[in-house]
Amino acid sequence: MKDQTPGGESTPVVRQAGAPTDTVVVLSTAPDELLAKRIAHVLVEESLVACAQVGPAVISMYLWQGELEGTDEVQLTFKTTADALPALYARLCDLHPYEIPEFVVLGVPAGSRAYLSWVAQGTRAAVQPAAGDA
């Protein structure tokens, strides 16, 4: 994480500069709470996300194959790093029943130094190449 915040290391809030290790937030949904909890558990356990939040049920309205749909879904929010996104997306697709699961990435322009470092450390194992790959 490149510190671009005036004040340097003593500043508790830092700006992110677009590095691969920068924290991002990923939004998704699941068709029910049980599956949402399973997806969250697996993604944290595999270090693809540092934190997964299972939110409240919502009703999503959308057009699918020309038909208006109104579906109960459970919100999912993931905290991860930019370099974990390809592996996270692939794994989410493996775990998800939808043909096209929601996968929306939000940039995090700034945050507390401690939290951003924690997210980077929590996902490091998923993005580091295996010892034989280096």
From TrEMBL:
InterPro entries: Ion_tolerance_CutA (IPR004323), N-reg_PII-like_a/b (IPR011322), N-reg_PII/ATP_PRibTrfase_C (IPR015867). One of its GO terms (molecular function) is copper ion binding. GO terms for biological process: response to metal ion. Gene3D superfamilies: 3.30.70.120. Belongs to the CutA family. This is Divalent-cation tolerance protein CutA. It comes from Castellaniella ginsengisoli. The lineage of its organism: Bacteria, Pseudomonadati, Pseudomonadota, Betaproteobacteria, Burkholderiales. The gene is cutA.
